[in-house]
Structure formats: structure tokens, C-alpha cells
Amino acid sequence: MRRSTRGDGPSELQRVDRNLGMELVRVTEAAALSAAPFMGRGDGKAGDQAAVNAMRAVLDTVRMDGRVVIGEGEKDDAPMLYNGERVGSGEAPALDLAVDPVEGTRLLALGRPNAIAVIAAAPRGTMWEPGASFYMDKLVVGEEARDAIDIAATPTENLKRVAEAMQRPVERLTVFVLDKPRHEELVAEIRRAGARVALHSDGDVMGALQAAYPGTGVDLLMGIGGTPEGVIAAAAVKALGGGMQGIRAPQREGERTRLAEEMDQAEMDRVLSLDDLVRGDDAFFAATAITGSPFLEGVRYDRGLGVTTESLVIRALSGSIRHIRGTHRLNPTHIFGSGKPREVVDAVMD
Asked: Smallest Cα–Cα separation from 212: which of 137, 316, 115?
């Protein structure tokens, strides 16, 4: 009989925390290693498919009753671990999972920095499910400024508040913004306020990480990005002690129509806090760099050493942050485990 993950006593998740973090890193390592051969080859979708196959194969070896609540596919027309898919061994703990086998598919295709394989996990029922919401306006900061932000205020006001909380002038703040036409006015206002802008074509999970993680050179993330990516980022921001707020920001007519059918305008405009996106503190986040980033080295092929990966795993409950460097032989069973059927390993590596 399975024990519940709810109640007053220690949860199953709490009892396996040390193992779970490492298991999640194995999942993101496998996805990154499978996507890495496609770096710079112009075919991000093929790299995404390879990462999906690898992530699914390794997820099924993890001791958990996992349910994917944030997957990819519908928004990006991508190969997907679909919402509602069950993964893992079927044993406790019961977990909600948010996954992105390649966050930054275009970055991978073009060989640009900040493509990562990423997964977040939290006890069943604690991770927000966005439904038809594909896009979200987000504001992310680090621990120093987590109580200073208000996404309902103007960007200029938020920059002043963050600068005051961080005890530095606005001119010394750097804001991560996705380089999209919808952000032209946002970028102009940030510049008028005197802050610096770091424009990136893709990768707002990594942008949120950079805003929440000290020493990256990024102080805030502002602007509209993917809602699924927002929930994944929320697990990391919570674990890092940062601050985050979001508001649904539909960008497509079909998205607006479906949301209008699901909720009233007040709910559509509701500010979502970090605790709305991931309830409670028992959340895990793991990421492995596919291409390089400010604080994670991408997959590297070393003569005589095999393949090197660098990963990050963090847990909200303990606040632990681990950087993990792995060296992997070019051997599928080393990456995916000797217990996997030969046909599964071959399918993943094809």
C-alpha cells in the first residue's frame, strides 16, 4: 500500500530527497548528452526528439509515481513528454513534474549559449497547471529584492525598488529580456530608466536562473515568455530564495478564446505569486547545460576522457545547491543504465 505524500508526518518525498536530486540529474544528463550531437546543425527539432526519448527512458527508471503536468508540444509543435503522461516506477513518492528536454531549441540548432535540459519536481498537487495559458508576463529577481517587486507596477518603478533593495543605482542593474517584437516598448522603458538590457533570442528558464542566482551579471528578468517555462523556473527561483511574479499574457487568438472560456477576466488578470506557481517548499530543480552558459559549461567532447557535462541541482526545502560535473563514456548503457532493454537504448541513441 502506498503512503500518502500529504499529511502532518514526513512525506515520502522528504525521505528520498538525497537520492531524488541525483536521479533527476541523471535524467537531465541523458537528455543533454542525446541533444548535444545536434548543436549547431540547424535541426533543433531532431535534437529535441533525441532529448525527449532519452528523458523518457531514464525517467522510467526513477523510483516515483510521476505525472507530467508541464510538458512541451502543443505550443511549439515539438516532440513531447505530454501533459498527463505517467512516468517512473509507479511507486511512491507521488510527484508532479515539469519538464523541458531542450529549453532553447533554436539555441541548440544555432549553437548559441544557454540551451539546457531541465526538470522540476514537487509533491503531487502542488505544481500549478496552466491549462490553455501558453504565455506569461514574468518578473524575477534574486533574494535581496524578492520582497520589493510588484508586477502590477511599471517597469521603471520596479527598477527603482530593486535598485533600492540591492543598494545600488538603477544604472548598475542588468535586465534579461527576450528579444521579441512584443518587448520593444519594455526595452525602451528600461533604457529610459537607465538600466542595462541583455537581449536574448530564447531561453527564459535560463534567464530566470540568471536573475535569481548570484554572480551571473543579471539582476532581473522582465517580459513575456512561455507559461510552462515559468512554472519550471518557479521551482528554481523558490529553491534559490528569489522572488517571482507572473500574469497570464495570451499572445494568440486561440489562446485568448480558450482562456476566456475557462475563466473570468479577474482570474485572467490575477497576479500569480511564487507560491501560486509551486505551493510549499519541497520542490527540486535540476538542469544540465547543452551549450555553455554564464555558470554551467555545455556538453564537451574530450579526447581520452569521454563526454563531460555540468549540471545544477537545487532543493527548496534545504536550500542546497550542487554543481555536478560528470564524465561519461561514449557508451549508451553507461548513460541510460545496463538494465534498460537493448531496443530502448538503440531507439534513444538513433
From this structure: 316
Alpha carbons 50 and 101: distance in angstroms, whole number = 9
Digit-coded pLDDT (tens) for 18-53: 578 889 999 999 999 999 999 999 999 999 999 999
Handedness of CA 123, 128, 130, 134 (dihedral sign): negative
C-alpha cell, 8: 502532518
CA distances to 128, 284, 323 from 297, rounded to whole Å, are 30, 21, 11
For residue 193, how far is the Cα from the chain centroid? 29
Sign of CA dihedral 141, 177, 172, 112: positive
Which residue is listed with cell 543504465? 337
Contact 121, 211 (CB under 8 A): no
Residue 124: DSSP 8-state: T
**Quick check: 18 and 80 in contact, CB under 8 A?**
no
At 158, list the grid cell. 520596479
Q: How many residues would you count in the chain?
A: 350
What span, in angstroms and rounded, lies between the C-alpha atoms of 309 and 293?
12
Angle formed by the axes of helices 227-240 and 204-212, nearest 10° = 20
Report the chain's C-alpha Rg in angstroms.
20
For the whole model, what pTM was predicted? 0.86
Q: How far apart are CA 132 and CA 251, in angstroms?
A: 12
Residue 59, SS3 per DSSP: helix
Residue 248 contacts residue 151 (beta carbons within 8 Å): no
Q: Mean pLDDT across the stretch 326-333?
A: 72
Residue 272, beta-bridge partner list: 246
Q: Return the DSSP state at 343.
A: H
Collapse the DSSP code of 307 into the 3-class scheme (helix H, G, I; strand E, B; otherwise coil) and give the result.
strand
Select, from the ranges 110-114, 261-265, 298-302, 334-338, the one with the highest average predicted confidence (pLDDT): 110-114
